[in-house]
């Protein structure tokens, strides 16, 4: 029996030494980095912002690890910053659709696909077979030039998509089962569709008809922000395209390779200015690049219809021999 005046044994300290503390501190800095980056939307900030989905997972793992080590406050801080990162992402793309993939809100949606084909290095035979068999009404493609090589390949798709729009100064293409018409004069000469950015026009456009309504269709390929000049060029190209869409009061469907995640400040500002809807995306985030990393990659390819006129659901398509996965969307006209 322990005497009454004997000192009580002290509670053992939580396990873990300075090395574990260093890991936790480094993890916290990494998890916090997107929030710092969002406050200063400059070129280097694009990296941690793009990695937010992975950093949310890292925060969860480190938070649980710290909780098991009985570092309660540290675990709470880690999980708190992870939750803030998750909130940044969901504010841009909306909540997940649970418990399964989303379903179109109409019986006969317009089926749209966007695909960056990886220039001539892509597997065109697989891509052509995919486009022919996918039941798509509208196809938006990037990294296709109006030269002899691609003219022959696009001609091979004319039996499925007889209506095609290309532009010599652009690497974007629009293919359709139904007629594509020229733009009205107030849009045709807009600088977003005529002035090159980093040596090419970043977007092309045409008009089509959906359920009797005239709809503006845009296929875009924004510069990759691989250096400060390219980052600024992408921001400028997005602003120009946003001006074009803001000037168009009717329905619009915009798709392509935007070389940025939806919560990147320039991309988010463009979508807000243009009044575009991010389609429902299912229980798990969509990743389109790199194609070989469909879970931990990033979605930089999108189909965005005008929020005032359409509802839409989206999914990533299969690997068809490009460094991007296609994005498929079922789009329903509601207004």
UniProtKB/TrEMBL annotation:
InterPro entries, from UniProt? Endo/exonu/phosph_ase_sf (IPR036691), Endo/exonuclease/phosphatase (IPR005135)
Q: Indicate the transmembrane segments per the record.
A: 20-38, 50-67, 73-93
Name used for this protein in its record: Endonuclease/exonuclease/phosphatase domain-containing protein
Q: Does the keyword tRNA processing apply?
A: no
Which superkingdom is the protein from? Answer: Bacteria
Q: What does the record give under GO molecular function?
A: catalytic activity
UniProt cross-references to SUPFAM superfamilies, sorted A to Z: DNase I-like (SSF56219)
Write the lineage as a comma-separated list. Answer: Bacteria, Pseudomonadati, Pseudomonadota, Alphaproteobacteria, Rhodospirillales
Q: Where is the Endonuclease/exonuclease/phosphatase domain?
A: 128-324
Q: Which terms are listed as keywords in the entry?
A: Membrane, Transmembrane, Transmembrane helix
- The organism named in the record is Roseospira navarrensis
Task: Give a single Pfam family match.
Answer: Exo_endo_phos
